[in-house]
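Sample 1 of the test manifest.
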Amino acid sequence: DAGVIQSPRHEVTEMGQEVTLRCKPISGHNSLFWYRQTMMRGLELLIYFNNNVPIDDSGMPEDRFSAKMPNASFSTLKIQPSEPRDSAVYFCASSFSRSSGNTIYFGEGSWLTVV
Amino acid sequence: ILNVEQSPQSLHVQEGDSTNFTCSFPSSNFYALHWYRWETAKSPEALFVMTLNGDEKKKGRISATLNTKEGYSYLYIKGSQPEDSATYLCATGGSQGNLIFGKGTKLSVKP
């Protein structure tokens, strides 16, 4: 079974450009999470969805960030316009069920560099 | 707001040494405690999920304990090997499965 699939794996972009990160969760999972990993703040939860519905986006840093989940097999995280401080690894993860006793499975991350 | 603390931030040990790290979390409204292992450029990999006070889990040379009353968990590695070098993350969650992670303990094992 394929794991969580993220694209692109690496992206280098110029400040001010739009960045779109994509995620395909594990088939059958009904929860999807976007995390951001930085040296200073560790792994931060940005937003999560249950059954394609955004539940909590309080971790989204600014209005420049937006996330969508149009169907059960696809989600995007968009940054517009991007800034150098957005440089980080962005992880998508998915799980089945809504209990925190369930393991969440991570993708390999999208490594974003904004210059 | 959940606050998960891990210590130490980093650890350097020799091959064969046994080691342990700590994860502290709020003891109120506890649902579950997760341990993950993360090697750079790879996906964080789940090690353990524990839900009950006094839980102990073991996978090979790695084990973990949980104390929900005082809000801490220990991860132990017996006889560390170079391949154990990674960042070990703990996380606890809300009722809807959203996990809040600590900043991790970065372990380096020298041969």
